[in-house]
C-alpha cells in the first residue's frame, strides 16, 4: 500500500538553495508587526477547522519558536495578510486566479497538518493522492530558511495538488532530471503556478508587508517562474549591472545607456554571491553575519539564505575568514576556501567532497565569464597567482581542472549582464570584455567599485 501511495506523492522541492526562507521569530512576517500572541477567539476559529489545535485554543496562544508555533504563525499569515486592489500582470507572473482568500482555499482542501521527521533532501512538504486531506510538513519547512510567508505559499501549493495537479520530472533547465520539480507550463495552473502567483501577489499587493519581504517575494516569484516549468513562464524584465562602492552605496549601471542611478545603502562591505535571483552578502568584517541583501534600502530579513550560510554564521571569525567565495547553483554548491573547495554535487544527498587547490596554490575568487547560470555545471576559479581553473560537479563528480579561459588582465569579479560581459579589477575599475579583450567602462564611480552583480528588474513589480 505504501509503495502505491508513494507514486502519487506530490511535493514541493527546494534543493536547499532553491526556494525560500526564516523561522523562530515568525512574528516579523505577520505583516502587521503586532502581537507575538494569537487571541483565543482567533485560535478557536483556526481549531474549528484544524481540530489538532484544540488544545492550544483554550487561551491566547503565544509563539514560542516550536514547530507547532511555526504552523500557527503560517496559518495566521494566510488569514491576516491583506491585499490592495489586484490587477493581472501583462506577462505570466500573476493572473489572480488563486488570489481571493488563501485561508478559504486552503481549508477547502486540507484538514490536517502533520510534521514529519524524515523527508528526502530538498523536500519541504507533501500531500498524497486518494482524497487524503492531510498536508505533511518536512523539517526543512521549519528551519530558519523558511518564514511564515514562505510556508503559506507552500501550503497553497500543496492544497492545489488536492485538485489533481501532479508534477513532472524536469527535462531541462536548472532542475533537469529532478523528479517532481517541474510543471509543464504555468498557464496550466498547477501547483508551481500557485507558488509563482502567491509570491507575486505578496510582492506587489500585500499591505503592510515589510519591504525586504516584498523584495524577497519578487525574487522568489521570478525564480519559480524561471526554473519550475518545462516551458519557462513569460516574465517581462530588464537586466542591469549592480555596483557597490567603498562608500557602501549601491548603484545601478544601465548597460544599454551607460548611465548610473544611485540606489540604497549596503549594511556592510563584503563579497556578494548569487543564489538565483537573490543576493547574499558575506561581510568583510567577520564579526558580522552573512545574509540576504537588497539594493534599495528595503532593510533586512532574519531568514537564512541557505544552509551554507547558516553554517557560516555559526563559525568563529577565524573560521569565517577561510571562506573566500561561494558558488550556489541549482543542483550543486562549492564552498571555496583558501586552500580547498568543498563540493556538494548531489542535490539528493548531503554528501560533500573536499578537493585541494592544485599545486599548493590558494584561491582568490570565482569568475563567471559565461554569466551566473543556475544550470551550469562549471564555474571559474582564479588563484592568488592568477592561475585559472574550472571547478565542476559535472556528472555529480567534483573536479578542479586547469581552465582554457584566458583573460588579458586580473579580475576579482566577472559577470554577464544583458548579454555583455563585465569585469571588476582589484583597483575598483569596471571593464567590458569582448572576446577576451578588456575595454574600460568609464563612470563617475571609477576606482571606488568594490562589488558588481547582475540584477534583474521585473516590469510587473516596477509599474503601478
Ligand atoms: Zn508540489
Task: List the defining traits of the structure above.
464 residues, alpha+beta, Neuraminidase, 2 domains, disordered N terminus, binds zinc ion
Give an overview of the whole structure.
This protein is α+β, with helices and mostly antiparallel strands. It has two domains: 2-231, no CATH class; 237-462, Neuraminidase, CATH 2.120.10. It has ten helices and 27 strands. The strands form eight sheets. Strands 1-5-6-4 form a four-stranded mixed β-sheet, with helices on one face. Helix 3 (67-80) packs across helix 5 (148-162), helix 5 packs antiparallel against helix 6 and helix 6 (191-205) runs antiparallel to helix 7 (211-227). Strand 21 and strand 22 form a beta hairpin. Residues 10-12, 157, 161, 167, 191 line the site of zinc ion (ZN).
Amino acid at each position: 500500500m505504501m509503495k502505491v501511495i508513494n507514486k502519487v506523492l506530490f511535493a514541493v522541492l527546494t534543493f536547499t538553495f532553491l526556494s525560500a526562507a526564516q523561522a523562530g521569530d515568525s512574528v516579523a512576517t505577520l505583516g502587521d508587526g503586532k502581537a507575538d500572541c494569537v487571541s483565543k477567539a482567533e485560535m478557536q476559529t483556526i481549531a474549528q477547522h484544524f481540530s489538532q489545535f484544540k488544545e492550544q485554543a483554550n487561551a491566547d496562544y503565544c509563539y514560542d519558536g516550536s514547530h507547532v508555533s511555526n504552523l500557527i504563525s503560517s496559518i495566521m499569515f494566510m488569514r491576516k495578510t491583506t491585499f490592495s486592489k489586484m490587477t493581472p500582470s501583462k506577462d505570466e507572473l500573476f493572473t489572480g486566479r488563486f488570489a481571493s482568500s488563501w485561508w478559504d482555499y486552503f481549508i477547502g482542501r486540507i484538514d490536517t497538518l502533520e510534521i514529519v521527521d524524515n523527508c528526502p533532501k530538498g523536500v519541504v512538504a507533501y500531500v498524497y493522492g486518494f482524497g487524503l486531506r492531510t498536508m505533511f510538513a518536512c523539517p526543512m519547512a521549519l528551519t530558519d530558511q523558511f518564514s511564515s510567508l514562505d510556508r503559506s505559499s507552500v501550503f497553497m501549493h500543496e492544497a492545489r495538488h488536492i485538485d489533481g495537479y501532479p508534477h513532472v520530472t524536469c527535462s531541462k533547465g536548472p532542475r533537469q532530471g529532478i523528479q517532481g520539480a517541474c510543471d509543464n507550463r504555468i498557464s496550466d495552473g498547477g501547483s508551481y503556478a500557485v507558488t509563482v502567483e502567491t509570491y507575486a501577489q505578496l510582492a506587489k499587493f500585500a499591505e503592510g508587508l515589510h519591504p525586504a519581504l516584498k523584495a524577497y517575494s519578487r525574487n522568489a516569484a521570478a525564480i519559480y517562474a524561471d526554473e519550475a516549468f518545462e516551458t519557462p513562464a513569460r516574465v517581462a524584465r530588464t537586466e542591469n549591472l549592480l555596483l557597490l562602492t567603498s562608500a557602501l552605496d549601491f548603484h545601478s549601471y544601465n548597460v544599454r545607456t551607460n548611465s548610473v542611478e544611485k540606489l540604497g545603502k549596503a549594511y556592510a562591505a563584503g563579497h556578494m554571491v548569487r543564489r538565483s535571483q537573490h543576493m547574499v552578502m558575506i561581510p568583510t568584517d567577520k564579526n558580522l553575519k552573512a545574509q540576504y541583501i537588497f539594493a534599495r534600502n528595503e532593510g533586512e530579513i532574519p531568514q537564512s539564505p541557505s544552509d551554507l550560510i547558516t553554517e557560516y554564521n555559526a563559525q568563529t571569525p577565524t573560521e569565517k575568514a577561510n571562506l573566500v567565495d561561494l558558488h550556489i547553483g541549482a543542483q550543486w554548491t562549492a564552498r571555496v576556501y583558501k586552500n580547498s573547495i568543498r563540493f556538494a554535487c548531489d542535490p539528493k544527498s548531503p554528501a560533500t567532497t573536499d578537493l585541494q587547490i592544485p599545486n599548493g596554490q590558494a584561491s582568490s575568487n570565482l569568475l563567471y565569464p559565461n554569466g551566473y547560470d543556475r544550470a551550469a555545471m562549471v564555474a571559474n576559479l582564479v588563484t592568488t597567482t592568477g592561475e585559472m581553473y574550472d571547478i565542476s560537479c559535472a556528472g555529480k563528480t567534483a573536479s578542479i581542472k586547469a581552465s582554457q579561459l584566458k583573460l588579458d588582465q586580473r579580475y576579482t569579479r566577472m559577470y554577464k549582464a544583458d548579454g555583455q560581459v563585465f569585469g571588476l579589477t582589484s583597483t575598483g575599475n569596471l571593464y567590458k570584455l569582448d572576446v577576451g579583450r578588456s575595454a574600460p567602462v568609464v563612470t563617475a564611480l571609477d576606482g571606488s567599485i568594490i562589488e558588481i552583480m547582475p540584477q534583474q528588474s521585473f516590469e510587473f513589480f516596477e509599474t503601478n
